[in-house]
């Protein structure tokens, strides 16, 4: 269950039984499908970059997609699509807030 307190949901490329999810580019594919859902809506060429609300990444060697709750506010059907993808494929989901990198030391 996803609460309203966290700013992001991390969909992890690990199934509920601990196995890596395949295909290996699943995160990029999912984020690519979600590229039109962005602040201001889709614009010409927006399919060439990921939405800031649905970003693929790797954390601790595990492929993930970070989904911002603003996606739900913008388009609940897009949010449901992403959450149902995770549920239907038995992927682990964690709520969190992505912290910015610390400033470089001088």
Automatic annotation (TrEMBL):
Domain of life assignment: Eukaryota
Name this protein carries in UniProt: DUF3579 domain-containing protein
Organism: Daphnia magna
């Amino acid at each position: 269950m996803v609460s309203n307190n966290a700013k992001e949901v991390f969909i992890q490329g690990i199934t509920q039984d601990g196995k890596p999810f395949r295909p290996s580019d699943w995160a990029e594919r999912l984020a690519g499908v979600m590229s039109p859902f962005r602040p201001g809506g889709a614009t010409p060429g927006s399919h060439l970059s990921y939405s800031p609300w649905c970003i693929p990444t790797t954390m601790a060697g595990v492929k993930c997609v970070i989904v911002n709750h603003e996606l739900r506010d913008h388009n609940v059907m897009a949010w449901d699509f992403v959450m149902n993808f995770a549920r239907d494929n038995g992927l682990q989901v964690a709520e969190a807030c992505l912290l910015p990198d610390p400033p470089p030391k001088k």
